[in-house]
């Protein structure tokens, strides 16, 4: 049985990749940071699966800022594959926390590479690189040969991690590959990312739970795909005879306005009545357009995306509509409970007054 370690297992990609690898028969070890509460909502359905008697998903404490612990984990588990998905992955937040972003996203990757270099058995390594490395694009569409021009601390950190991954591959003969993934979304996407922010907000507006949706640059264009499709590409890279780097993208570009049009049309709403622009959501340096050319991945890996843009948006809207309905039901119950509490307190107060008389 193959063993894989996933950093960032509690994130969107980590959850989909865990499911994928478990179906392939892997034993999966997820690296999670120690905290006062578990952030395992995306993987609880497989972590606590009562139909998996072998318990092939295990969570272990670790942190990309602690190189000695990483080395200890790798030596104990002796994995066949390591997928580095852990990161401070929000581009806008990276401007507010540039040092932390560099420590985790850039140096964190270097710590993993150094730890893996000390493991005696061969380990295959996947680095989650990003289309944000292209930033102020010098070529459209972007391929594996397009020069990087990052426009955020996040993008800069990812460029560093990319080249360290290549350098360790060429210097030490390690099986290291970079997946240059363009934007990939799903119902499991964090609610602070623009796609999920829109589908979550729109469905709450539809059910009367929210009045307004505040956004930044509506003209930004991205190549949006489905995260479930993209994790398959990660695995395919790791199964090749020779390690290499691949752009993973749909080859289609859509603006934030397109996303709004599609989302609100599904809900039979006019987004212009509800969306307001908030300058706080603009980045200090904008990335206007990203569009990937995944020809190499399609030819070498025999990979291609299965879910198109419209299907992706509908999938997210339907999921968030169910979530909004649960929110509404919960709110009703809370209001009902609050009324019950007020009634009980009023009755208690009346009884106390009667008793004093």
Write a structural description.
The protein is an alpha/beta fold and about 350 residues long. It has a domain at about 5-190 and about 220-250 and about 285-305: Rossmann fold. About 45% of the residues lie in helices and about 15% in strands. The protein has eleven helices and 13 strands. Strands 3-2-1-4-5-6-11 form a seven-stranded parallel β-sheet, sandwiched between helices. It has a two-stranded parallel ribbon with strand order 7-10. A two-stranded parallel ribbon has the order 8-13. Strand 1 (about 5), helix 1 (about 10-25) and strand 2 form a beta-alpha-beta unit. Helix 1 (about 10-25) packs across helix 8, helix 7 runs parallel beside helix 9 and helix 9 (about 255-265) packs across helix 11. The mean pLDDT is about 90.
Summary tags:
single chain; 357 residues; alpha/beta; Rossmann fold; seven-stranded parallel β-sheet; two-stranded parallel sheet; 11 helices; 46% helix
CATH top level label of the domain at 3-189 and 222-252 and 287-307? Alpha Beta
Tally of DSSP β-strands: 13
CATH superfamily placement of the domain at 3-189 and 222-252 and 287-307: NAD(P)-binding Rossmann-like Domain
Report the portion of residues in β strands.
5-15%
The 3D shape can be described as: globular
Helix run count? 11
Task: Give the fraction of residues assigned to helices.
Answer: 40-55%
Q: Reading side by side through the largest sheet, how are the strands ordered?
A: 3-2-1-4-5-6-11
Classify the secondary structure makeup into a structural class: alpha/beta
> Could you list the spans in which at least 5 consecutive residues all have pLDDT below 50?
none
Q: Could you say what the CATH architecture of the domain at 3-189 and 222-252 and 287-307 is?
A: 3-Layer(aba) Sandwich
Order of helices and strands: EHEHEHEHHEHEEHEEEHEEHEHH
Query: Termini, distance in Å?
Result: 78 Å
Radius of gyration: 23 Å
